[in-house]
Amino acid sequence: MTIATQARKITESKPFYALTGAGDYAVEKARAYASTMQVKAETVARELPEKAKGYADAAAARISRLYDDLALRGRKVVSRVSGEAALELEEVAQNAEPAIAAETSTKRTSATRSRSASATRS
Predict the structure, then answer these.
(1) How many CB atoms are located within 10 Å of the residue 12 CB?
(2) How far apart are the C-alpha atoms of 14 and 32, rounded to whole Å?
């Protein structure tokens, strides 16, 4: 049998037509799917800037709230610590006052005595 006869026998058979029909059906469905996906992709591409902006705005708002919360928390910590430091400084100042006052009065007394002695000698 020649090749032309075999080709004609194959191309005239029902299985060949079924396979060709299946291939055509697959191509048709693939084109329809590609068309649908193209429409969806275009829709997403149009909506993407708006959605991205929405997501970015939401993220910025959350970050801003977090920043404000952290600043408030830091302010409370600094206030608490500086309040404790102020109390410690006040205690130190109160304990140091009598010593400073005693030292000052001793110096005044010595200076007064020196002046008195000088005036008496003159």
Answers:
(1) 9
(2) 27
CA dihedral 27, 32, 38, 39 (to 10 degrees): 170
Per-residue pLDDT tens over the stretch 14-52? 888 888 899 999 999 999 999 999 988 888 888 888 888
User: Considering the entire predicted model, what is its pTM?
Assistant: 0.40
Rounded CA-CA distance 59/52 in Å is: 10
End-to-end CA distance of the chain: 157
**Tokens at residue 15, please?**
């299985």
Which ranges of the chain does DSSP label H, i.e. alpha helix?
3-11, 14-121
